[in-house]
Amino acid sequence: MTARLKDKVAIVTGGSRGIGEAIARRLARDGARVVVASRKQEALDPVAESIRDAGGECIAVACHTGQEDAIDALVAAAVREFGPVDILVNNAATNPYFGPLMNIEDRAWDKTFEVNVAGYFKMARAVARQLLERGAPGSIINVSSVLGTMAAPMQGAYGMTKAAVISMTRTLALELGGAGIRVNAIAPGLIETRFSQALVGNEEILKTVLDRCAIKRVGQPEDIAGVAAFLASEDAAFMTGEVLTVDGGWTMT
Ligand SMILES: NC(=O)c1ccc[n+]([C@@H]2O[C@H](COP(=O)([O-])OP(=O)(O)OC[C@H]3O[C@@H](n4cnc5c(N)ncnc54)[C@H](OP(=O)(O)O)[C@@H]3O)[C@@H](O)[C@H]2O)c1
Asked: Closest ligand 1 atom, CA of 192?
């Protein structure tokens, strides 16, 4: 039996904790050589080390995905260390403002779009360019959110960026499909991470979400990781431009 991502090289942004960490662990378990990236090297190093301890191949590269030179350096480091990149998981996102959309300050708006939209696009473009140059197939997975598919109370700008990610996913899928590069998105519901602490820790919000969920629990990062590994693999060879909702049934009705 061969691991389904054997010899594949993957970059996972936001890989130091939460959903990105779980995806990195899962891709490594499935045989990929994984580069975990986030802003803080000291947060990434223990993740990479523990993946290696578990028998996987992993390196940690600090990268602020809002900065294009850092993105180029990340892709270059991946190629230097592990070889050309086959899989990109765009997962690093930010949500600095919680409140009515009308009251958001320009700085928070700019940061949200810089990381969540421009960062995702520039990462996808950098990886797609080197796939196109070598005529290789690839898989790009964009972590969006159910808040990109409906109104996002108190998280309006964030929701807009997640909607933009879905649009970007479909257009890139259309433009790159002929070259064998698949581009898909995952729209998680409420997943228990540091990012969602303000929501999971708020009884009223939690109840509102769980009342609508068919599966009566908060999601765990591992609930997303298996879906990402599937999209990265040949099992999803005929899927592109899709948005897989993984939300315990929250938004199905
Ligand atoms: N948790 C949920 O309920 C939920 C629901 C729907 C969608 N999502 C999406 O899932 C993804 C992961 O979220 P999470 O809940 O796992 O969040 P998390 O636990 O807070 O992790 C966020 C990760 O992104 C990194 N990061 C943040 N800003 C960055 C930047 N500018 N450049 C590079 N890395 C950066 C963080 O590391 P550093 O601090 O070291 O940079 C960290 O590794 C996000 O796209 C989020 O929108 C989450």
From this structure: 1
In this prediction, residue 62 carries a pLDDT of: 98
Longest dimension (CA), the chain: 55
Q: Which among 158, 183, 219, 232 is annotated as catalytic?
A: 158
Q: Give the Cα separation of 238 and 181 in Å (integer).
A: 11
Report residues whose beta carbon is within 6 angstroms of any ligand 1 atom.
Answer: 13-20, 38-40, 43, 63-66, 91-94, 115, 143, 145, 188, 190-191, 193-196
Nearest to 209 by CA among 196, 228, 222, 221: 196
Ligand 1: residue of 193, 210, 222 to mutate (most ligand atoms within 8 A of CB) is: 193
Over residues 148-154, the mean pLDDT reads 97
Q: Is residue 253 included in any domain, yes or no?
A: no
Q: Which residues touch 152 (CB under 8 Å, ≥6 apart)? A: 158, 159, 160, 162
Q: Please give the average per-residue pLDDT across 159-185, as a whole number.
A: 99
Q: CA-CA distance, 187 to 59, in Å (whole number)?
A: 27
Determine if the pTM surpasses 0.90. Answer: yes
Structure tokens at 145: 């959110």
Number of domains within the chain: 1
Q: What are phi and psi of 63, to 5 degrees?
A: -160, 125
**pLDDT tens digit sequence for 20-65:** 999 999 999 999 999 999 999 999 999 999 999 999 999 999 999 9
**Domain limits for position 23:** 9-246
95: pLDDT strictly greater than 90: yes
Q: What is the spatial distance between Cα 15 and Cα 3, in angstroms, rounded to a whole number?
A: 21
Residue 251 resides in a domain: no
